[in-house]
Structures are given as C-alpha cells and as structure tokens.
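If you are new to this repository, start here. Below is one unmodified record pulled from the training split, so you can see the exact layout before writing a loader.
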Amino acid sequence: MAPSPRGRISVDLRGLRPALFELANARGVSPSDLVRTLLADALPQSDCPPASRISDSSSRPLVDRVRLSLRMSRDEARTLALAARASGVPLGAYVAGVTAGIPALTCASLRSEHLKALVASNSTMATLARNLARLTSLLSHGSVAEAAYYREMLDRVADEVRAHLAISSTTLADLRPRRLGTLEGHPTSDGT
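And here is the target side for that same chain:
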C-alpha cells in the first residue's frame, strides 16, 4: 500500500519539546514545519521532496494564534459547538466573536433575519442589474417605445439602491466586534 501524501506519525520527544518550540519560534515557523524541514534535510534527497516544497508557505509565526482550553460540562460544550455551527463559523472564531460582542453571533435569530433580508435584497439588485442591461440594450438599438416599459423601474432605482445599502450596512455593522479586541485580524471597535 502506498503511503499517504500527507502522512502523520507521533513521536515521543523525550524532553526535546521545549527546545523544538524555542527553535521553531526563533525561525518564525510552526514546530511541524521545522520538523519536516529537518527531516527532509536528514533523509536522502531521492526519497523525499526538497525542504522548500515541504514547508508550508502559508504558515504564520506562532505568536499569531494560540491554543485555548476551556473547562465546561459536556452539555455546555455541545451547546457551544452547536451555536458555532449554526452561526457558520469555526468554534474559535465563534468564541472570539461572542467575546468581541458581535451581535450576529450573540443572537441566533438576528443572523438568520440578516441573511434572509440580504438574500432578498441581493435578488432585487440582480433583477435591477438585468433590467438596466436590457434597457441599455434597447436604447442603444433605438427601441425607445420598448424602453418606456422600464420607466417606472428607473424612477425607483435610487430608492432600491439606498434600501440595499441600508440592509448591507446593518448586516455588516452587526458582524463587527463591539468590544475591544480583534477577531481573526479584523479591526477593533475603536478602529485599530
């Protein structure tokens, strides 16, 4: 059986863990990236890809993200996981978002209301775009009589665009943190 292109093994570091993490941190890579690079350098080159191809170029320095453990009952953990899943975000982002006071995460019905309103508004904008394209086509071909059908739509364009922008801005506002702190690199509520 051929090995998986992304194989995993567990190794007992026997006291080497602190040194591994210190060296990885000093190089600005994850411990996994450091181990892959060291192994690639130690193994015969014909049997493995170059270290440059093994290292994950998208990895971030360890200071960007930390692991957080929470102690809670099974029911609380299940409720938290279900709430994150219902919100459509990873568990860590959900906890950070609730902590940051993002209204769309703290009120489940608010999120679904926003999504329904935004979908309906986007549909209206898509119809408007198609109608404007059709109107432009008619006018460019000199079909003024047929273009008159779109007159009423033109009278409402500004109102429909304003309504869409109001819905969009409300939704975006309710997705922004209300408290100090950041969520996945987004600015804080004080603009920093």
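Two things worth knowing about this chain: The longest helix spans residues 108-140. The radius of gyration is 27 Å.
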